[in-house]
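BUG-248 | component: ligand-complex export | severity: low

The export step for 1,3-dihydroxyacetonephosphate jobs runs without errors, but we want the raw record kept on the ticket for reference. Input record follows.
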Amino acid sequence: MARKLAAGNWKMNGTTAALAEVAALTAAIGDATCEVLLCPPATLISRMADMAQGSHLMVGGQTCHPNGSGAHTGDISAAMLADAGATHVILGHSERRADHGETDEAVAAQAGAAIEAGLIAVICVGETEAERDADVTLNVVSSQLAGSVPEGTDLSHVVIAYEPVWAIGTGRTPTLEQIAEVHDHMRADLAERFGNGAHDIPLLYGGSVKPSNAAEIFAVSNVDGALVGGASLKAADFSGIVSTLSAA
Ligand code: 13P
């Protein structure tokens, strides 16, 4: 059985004032039985990690460079994230793939570096609307999984997030049957490649998850949690999703 994880991705949102939400969140999730993760902008990781100490909240980055150090202006290495207090890092988010041209190969290299640095890699996959319309969703997801999850990896340090690009920030979500189809497919793909250990990999759904639709999504086969964007910015919304997952 995979452990359950509620993960929040703040994307490029939040300055010092937003840390007030962290105090409210840590207070609200005291009795959560699922794992809880927030991935703020890099500028807030260290302070958020300090605030999260002794609480149920874990803190993560939103990307990392495959190299440990060097002449890569503006980039952050996995070891730097770990040093700042991060335990996880989101990799291959569709916004990184689109804005920065990140390929599956690049994501696999980042994931290898993250796992080497002791981080848990939250690797994102998902089809565009055109791919869904062309009925190639399962092929796209399979090929992203095959290319983005590195070989010989420590599976205890891998989380997969299925985020259909057309469902991100749009208020639209796939049907529960569509989510089940993709999640069952991902589990089978991972089991074929990695064997029994694949059953312990948390498979998150992401894209317009909110307190009002979380329960039905968490009841779907092979959904072990969520990667939440907009609704993770407010402690009241995110803690509602955390308690729904705890009860699922
Ligand atoms: P929304 O929850 O805002 O749709 O974003 C999902 C996402 O991209 C999380 O990584």
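Assignee comment: Attached the raw record above. Strands lie at 5-9, 35-39, 57-61, 88-91, 120-125, 158-162, 203-206, 225-228.
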